[in-house]
Amino acid sequence: METEQILSRLCAAGAPSGFEGPAVQAARELLLPLMDEVRTDRLGNVVGVRRCGRPGAKRLLWDAHLDEVGMVVTGHQDGFLRFTANGVDLRMLPDREVMVLTAPPVLGVVACLPPHVLSAEDREKAPELKDLRIDVGLSGEEAERRIPVGTPVVYRAELTRLGERQVCAKALDDRACFAALLRAAELLRNTKLDVDLYILGSVCEEVGGVGAQVGAQALNPDFCVAVDVTHGRTPDSSKDESYVMGGGPAVGIGPNCTRWMTRLLLDRAEAERIPVQREVMEGGSGTNGWPMQVANEGIATAVLSIPLKYMHTPVEVVELSDIEAAARLLAAFAAALREEGAQ
Q1: What pLDDT score does 339 carry?
Q2: Domains: count for the chain
Q3: Distance CA 312, CA 96 (A)
Q4: Which of 208, 194, 71, 183 is nearest to 133 (CA)?
Q5: Catalytic site residue from 20, 68, 205, 279
Q6: Which residue range(s) make up the domain with 81?
Q7: Which residue has the higher pLDDT, 248 or 158?
Q8: Inside any domain, residue 160
């Protein structure tokens, strides 16, 4: 299956933090042809395992999270829904189409007063969450019957092409990275490895990385790579804090990144002529690399990031070549690992 088709399937799943079931199911089905074993753990993480055949082989873990930013219904008001949000950019919400994840899902729009009836002062203000409601076109009685408190809500946004090389959708953070893991596993199909390979599609990253923490604790890998997104370059972004779209993935450099793993990623990129960028991370990386690094007695960790524009909005954008470059680098890294571990 082509990367764009995989992205379309993964991003179509409505799966905010704590409600990842649909994305986990899609990920599980995509992993099955590539792995020796696929399972789901108690927390809801999906885990794929490819064994190298050597008893007691060391373990390499790749992680990308499957949850997306979203909302949860907290109450009703005359047929409209009150809600809370996790990770959502509030500037994106007014007049936005959303999907209320009942069975079947219900289309809604985030209600907003038109500018004609706002004062000049109010037109200059960003909306506050407490003042927003979701309009689902139902009576008060019907809304309360069909949409109970606790129902999750996500943006409504299908994957679309943006120009010739980029794609736009909700939830590309972090499903573009899970697509890279799938592609890397595909590239390694005919390659003999000296380590057992584990692929973790983790839950609840947007609420503190608990899925990766539990996954790393249980799987106890010898080394892991957290694959997430970083900020893609736009005209108004700082060049020191954003990365070129189409310039390849960014290799993390900093205390959240084990030095020999960083060096090996950069060496493999140079040897294989894979375009990469360097991202200095002065402390915590803001990724699952942080909780995985300190699991158990400590795990050698690297962070690899795909540039993405408009993070935590319904119009996230990635370049397909960056996903391919990340996959190639992950495959080259895995093939370079030897039984003795650190190079």
Answers
A1: 52
A2: 2
A3: 14
A4: 71
A5: 205
A6: 70-155
A7: 248
A8: no
